[in-house]
Amino acid sequence: xxxxxxxxxxxxxxxxxxxxxxxxxxxxxxxxxxxxxxxxxxxxxxxxxxxxxxxxxxxxxxxxxxxxxxxxxxxxxxxxxxxxxxxxxxxxxxxxxxxxxxxxxxxxxxxxxxxxxxxxxxxxxxxxxxxxxxxxxxxxxxxxxxxxxxxxxxxxxxxxxxxxxxxxxxxxxxxxxxxxxxxxxxxxxxxxxxxxxxxxxxxxxxxxxxxxxxxxxxxxxxxxxxxxxxxxxxxxxxxxxxxxxxxxxxxxxxxxxxxxxxxxxxxxxxxxxxxxxxxxxxxxxxxxxxxxxxxxxxxxxxxxxxxxxxxxxxxxxxxxxxxxxxxxxxxxxxxxxxxxxxxxxxxxxxxxxxxxxxxxxxxxxxxxxxxxxxxxxxxxxxxxxxxxxxxxxxxxx
Length: 397
Hints:
This protein is of the alpha+beta class. The protein is built from eleven helices and 16 strands. The two termini are 53 Å apart.
């Protein structure tokens, strides 16, 4: 990534040519070897960190005029804090490869004439003048060390930089998914949306399974754009192709998962069951429970009431410890219902997406990404009143 960014961005190239110790940590520019003084006039070395906004895979721009700083408060030669830095104490998580850079504060200083820096070169030069000026006046030091910083290996599953995570500063939260291997059983309306949401979640691996073919009605209740040559292909092939340029670690297999499919789920840490056949759930549940894989099962119960669709959306969590107990409650249908309106292929993409949202949000609560005030394992969303009801583990006490 170092060579690619430096060769395609003139301002980054100028930083390197001037001698700054430039490095990159995912979506962050890191400039090490920044000298500064403490309140006693002692010399220290810090580092600037700035967010990179990726225009494409090769070109970056700034998000704002601010920088982060790994170090304590910079001081002048007379022991007073350097003025006009604003900001304050701050914490920003970088990767393990940048463990030497511990961000402690943010700085906010912008040019009075324009209100913005034209590029990264001018930004870093401006902050160096403020932060390092006193140190350079007292000691024979400069930030132009020409030190080559080993490139940080980009372990991201995404083929494009995940700038949303850096802009929201939630890299530490996103890291909670890095060891997950997620299975999605069923790529119908809801399963397709689960795949879409999980493809944008930095889990290590996603295995999707569906034996059916992709037809016109699938296009009306699934994400993405329809291409003519997709019709009639296996759903697994269609969805596998849609995400291959976006991230790594996705495999989609045209296969029916049942109680005999143990090898397909070896190493899986979590599963989503998105099938519309109650009978099919029996074997899938049996397999997941026997392998100790926690999972969420989704479903819809729709009916026509006064000429309008009504019903419920459901997401039920089966933990590794209590899966059999939850299964015994009969919360998910384990037999087929002949008159189920949903199976008539009504075009309800918004309900499929919402059902997938319930499931994925619950999964992310379980991983500590989203807050969870109540340990709900059974969620029901009513279409008529737009209300969510749930059964909590505390209800069982």
